[in-house]
Amino acid sequence: MLCNNCKEELTQDNVYPSDRRYCADCGQKHALYLQERRQTLASLRDMNLESKIVQTRYFIRQAVMEFGLDKVYISYSGGKDSTVLSHIAKQMYPDILHLFSNTTNEYPETIRHIRWEKEENGTNLITVLPIDAKGEMWTFKKIIEHYGYPMFSK
Ligand SMILES: [Zn+2]
């Protein structure tokens, strides 16, 4: 086996004991990285609502400044989280693109809400559907027949 990061050959002597995908050096760095990420998430979660909104606006502005408004979009599912993000982003950039990825396994209410967002609420929204290399639709039924039923997580 090779280290997942530096591709060095893993031996009993150099493997990182608590995560055997890495050598000792890379394993230690990866553990530190994960620890820092957990701390960042915890401190973001602990912020009050006003600070979270300020932080969100900052992230959105940074993305638009870095890539340009024509190169960023809201990944919009129609659920509560992406709706909050959409609301904040549209206050700053009213015409920002929203992309709804239709899994073909959506509730009718979600599809109706997506239509309302586009047609009544004036959101710049496009819907994409999963297609295979031959241009055929990957319906949820076809995925279950091909791969089996998803378990534990999406
Ligand atoms: Zn390594």
Average pLDDT for all residues: 94
**Distance from first to last alpha carbon:** 29 Å
**Widest sheet: strand ordering:** 1-2-3
Task: Label the overall shape.
Answer: extended
The first-level CATH class name of the largest domain? Alpha Beta
CATH superfamily of the largest domain: HUPs
What's the structural domain tally?
Answer: 2
- What oligomeric state best describes the polypeptide chains here? single chain
Number of H- or I-type helical stretches = 5
Largest sheet: 3 strands, parallel
Helix content, binned percent: 40-55%
Spell the H/E element sequence.
HHEHEHEH
CATH topology-level name of the largest domain:
Rossmann fold
Poorly predicted regions are none
Descriptive labels:
binds zinc ion; mainly alpha; single chain; 154 residues
Please provide a written account of the structure.
The protein has five helices and three strands. With 154 residues, it is mainly alpha-helical. The protein has a three-stranded parallel β-sheet, covered by helices on one side. Helix 2 crosses helix 3. The longest helix is centred in the N-terminal third of the chain and has 23 residues, at 24-46. The chain is extended, with a radius of gyration of 21 Å. The model has no long low-confidence stretch (mean pLDDT 94). Residues 3, 5-6, 8, 22-23, 25-26 line the site of zinc ion (ZN).
Helices and strands in order:
Blueprint: H1 24-46, H2 49-67, E1 73-75, H3 80-92, E2 97-101, H4 108-119, E3 125-128, H5 140-147
Parallel strand pairs: 1-2, 2-3
Helix pairs in contact: 2-3
Bound molecules: zinc ion (ZN).
